[in-house]
TrEMBL record:
This is 2-dehydro-3-deoxy-phosphogluconate aldolase. InterPro entries: Aldlse_KDPG_KHG, Aldolase_TIM, KDPG/KHG_AS_1, KDPG/KHG_AS_2. Its EC number is 4.1.2.14. It catalyses: 2-dehydro-3-deoxy-6-phospho-D-gluconate = D-glyceraldehyde 3-phosphate + pyruvate.
Length: 207
C-alpha cells in the first residue's frame, strides 16, 4: 500500500496516544467500526509498539501505522511491530532513508514551502502539514496549492470536527489527522461506543 492509498481510506486519520495496552484492541475495533481505517499510533507511550501489535490482531480491516517517528530505530521498531505506514512531525532524511530501506510508506511533516520542496526533491507527493492550525491553517494550504502543485497534504494539529471541513474542501488536501476522535477521557472510561460515534461522525465528513 502506498501512502496515498492510506490517506484515501477515510477523511480522518486518528492520531492515537495509547497509555494502556488493554485499550488498544477495543480502540482499534471502535474506530474501524465507525469507518476510520487508517490508524496512527504515536510512539509517545511505553506501550505504543505493543499497542500496534494488538491493533493489527484486533482489527484486521484497519491499516495501522506509527506516528512520532523520530529516528531510524523508531522506523525499524515500528515495522517490526506491524506498522504499515509511518508519520513524523518533521522531515528528516535519516528517518526517510530508513523508511525507504524498510519499505515503510511515510508521511513526514512540513511547515514551510522550503520543507515541502525538500520532500518533493525526494519524490514525495504526500506530506503532513504540521501543526496545521498554529501555522495559519487552511488559508496557508490554499496559498500553497498553485506553487506547490503535485503535493497533497494531510494537515494535522489543532483540527477537530468543527474545522476539518475547511481543510477537506481544498484541492490539495487528501485527509486530515487528529486526536479528537479518541479523547483520553473516553479511553480511560472505556467508552468505546462513544469513540465509535466520534469516528462515524469523522468518517462522514465530505472529502
Ligand atoms: O507526532 C506525530 O507524528 C504526530 O502525528 C503529531 C500529531 O499530528 C499531533 O499531535 C496531533 O495533534 P492534535 O490533533 O491537535 O492533538
Amino acid at each position: 500500500m502506498k501512502i496515498e492509498d492510506v490517506c484515501r481510506l477515510a477523511p480522518v486519520v486518528p492520531v492515537l496516544i495509547v497509555e494502556e495496552l488493554a485499550h488498544a484492541a477495543p480502540l482499534a475495533r471502535a474506530l474501524s467500526a465507525g469507518g476510520l481505517k487508517a490508524l496512527e499510533v504515536t510512539l509517545r507511550t511505553p506501550c505504543a509498539l505493543d499497542a500496534i501489535r494488538a491493533m493489527v490482531d484486533a482489527a484486521p480491516d484497519a491499516v495501522v501505522g506509527a506516528g512520532t517517528l523520530m529516528t531510524p530505530a523508531d522506523v525499524y521498531a515500528a515495522v517490526e511491530a506491524g506498522a504499515r505506514f509511518g508519520v513524523s512531525p518533521g522531515l528528516s532524511n535519516r528517518v526517510l532513508d530508513a523508511a525507504e530501506d524498510a519499505g515503510l510508506p511515510m508521511l513526514p511533516g512540513v511547515a514551510t514551502p522550503s520543507e515541502a520542496m525538500a520532500g518533493m526533491e525526494r519524490g514525495l507527493t504526500h506530506l503532513k502539514f504540521f501543526p496545521a492550525e498554529a501555522n495559519g491553517g487552511a488559508p496557508v494550504l490554499k496559498a500553497w496549492a498553485s506553487p506547490l502543485a503535485g503535493v497533497s497534504f494531510c494537515p494535522t494539529g489543532g483540527i477537530g470536527l468543527g474545522n476539518a471541513k475547511d481543510y477537506l474542501g481544498l484541492s490539495n488536501v487528501v485527509c486530515v489527522g487528529g486526536s479528537w476522535v479518541a479523547p483520553a477521557k473516553l479511553m480511560a472510561a472505556g467508552d468505546w461506543a462513544g469513540i465509535e460515534t466520534l469516528a462515524a461522525e469523522a468518517a462522514a465528513l465530505p472529502v
